[in-house]
Amino acid sequence: MYSNLPSSDIALEEFESLAVNRLRLLKALEHAKSKGRRDDELKSTLKTLMDRHMTADASAERESAMTMAQCDDFGHHILRIAYSRNEELRKWLVTHETLLFKLRFRHTLSPSERERFLATNELPYEPCSNAELDDVRDDLVQLLESTGKKEEAAILRASGGGAGAATTPGPSAAATTTPGSASASRYAAARAYYKVPFEEVPDLVASRAVVLHRGNAYVPSESLVSLVAGRFRARLAKALVMTNRALAAGVWADEAGRVAPIAAGLALRYLGPAIEGEVGANSQQMRVQDLPKAATEHFPLCMLTLYQALRRDAHLRHGGRMQLSLFLKAIGLRMEDALAFWKGEFTRKITAEDFDKRYAYNLRHNYGKEGKRTDYTPYSCQKCLAQTVGAVGEYHGCPYRTLGSAQLKESLVENMKLTPMQAKQVAEKAQQGHYQLACGRALELRRFGGEELEENVMHPNQYFEMSRKAELGVEGGGGGGGGGGGAAMEVEVAAQPVTPIAR
């Protein structure tokens, strides 16, 4: 339950790598879950991901590699720091850490290990006594039969007969019985259910998976994970709020030069295939005259929305200019062509001199030709999602998040050429908060005939390359590894340049 903080020291490089590995693991599980993977498929996925992302090599600061338990503990607590800053980040982390917890509890712990886990974490769940089970035996049998578990129902019915002691048999009692004896069957049946207050398992009550009696729910052992996961979720949610308060009280200021920048950047970290800031490193050169067709055919909805707003209004506000210009830079639009493109659009409303005075510097700055001469990278999906949008005339950010359901469906039909049914399917994912998954589904429906791709869309430029390759029939158009985090490279999302801006 991660009740205790890690006590050993780690280097800053380990701090970052452990957090990134944990983030890769959670993102990959989110992707697999969104694709409707069955429980047995998630089990095999979990093992692969844990072997890949819960390990750390030996380093100069550490003679031997960290154990999986240490990687697990450090990674979890570091993400607590990074994702405690606002309600949306806390909600995401609670949801996906709980998913990871449930899968590990269900698939990696033996029955005896589960019992030890309950005892160690002081969780008040005791198996039903024989007398308690007798009170609801008939109802439990009916429930099992109604769900097709006729063999289990027969065993439970046969194990009844005669009032047992009101205390639960201990391990020694089980050890003295023979496998085929009535007492052994009775003991096994009694151990199969836990009596808990019904309000602790609302999901099981809602799905009618438990018997209710005198305010208690009789939970089968295979559903015990719902009980424990509920406790885990509540504890983690409370811990994140407490962490945020501690950080706001002065910890951030004390760590401003070390841990704080790393932790703050984790929530914006792009974990997919490398997207270069250098023009042409990852793509062919893009000509200005080719932009209209490229926008219509291959731009993700966020960039298409900005492009259309620019063509319509002959202007974009600063956030939109930053998001679109860096995207165009990465798909191959050279600086001279970019200046010509933006100038051609803006001078439909202002003079060329006014454009040169107010906007040209920022564009050259984005290409590393002014100021610190930094080669800025394009915005990832996480960076787009983090943008604040609200003022009239602002179109940056992620439309899957900013648009209402009706507006989004209309835009998908009109701009992404989806059918109304397809648009509804995509909009439902966005309504559930799965914005990147909604974008990925739009790409699958538009370019891959609805076939589910293993790679998750994590970057607008990644979307562009996948769409373009699909049209060209290039092998690997569906990519590989972004969602699973295998050989993918993480790219630091460059900070927004601090330059004088014109609205």
Please state the average pLDDT score: 81
Large-scale geometry: elongated
Taken as a percent bin, the fraction of beta residues is under 5%
Stretches where pLDDT is under 50 for at least 5 consecutive residues are 162-181, 479-503
Structural class by sheet pairing and helices? mainly alpha
Spatial strand order of the main sheet: 1-3-2
Specify the number of helices. Answer: 24
Number of strands: 3
Helix content percent band: 55-70%
**Spatial extent as radius of gyration:** 28 Å
Q: What is the chain-wise order of helices and strands?
A: HHHHHHHHHEHEEHHHHHHHHHHHHHH
First-last Cα distance? 49 Å
Largest sheet: 3 strands, antiparallel
How does this model look, in words?
Helix 1 (12-34) runs parallel beside helix 12, helix 4 (87-107) crosses helix 11 (224-254) and helix 21 (405-415) packs across helix 22. The chain has helices spanning 12-34, 39-53, 68-82, 87-107, 111-120, 130-146, 150-158, 171-175, 182-191, 202-206, 224-254, 259-266, 291-298, 301-313, 318-330, 335-346, 352-358, 360-366, 381-385, 399-402, 405-415, 420-431, 435-447, 460-472, and strands at residues 193-197, 211-213, 216-220. A hairpin with a 2-residue loop joins strand 2 (211-213) and strand 3 (216-220). The protein is mainly alpha-helical. The protein has a three-stranded antiparallel sheet with strand order 1-3-2. The protein has 24 helices and three strands. The protein is 57% helix and 3% strand. The chain is elongated, with a radius of gyration of 28 Å.
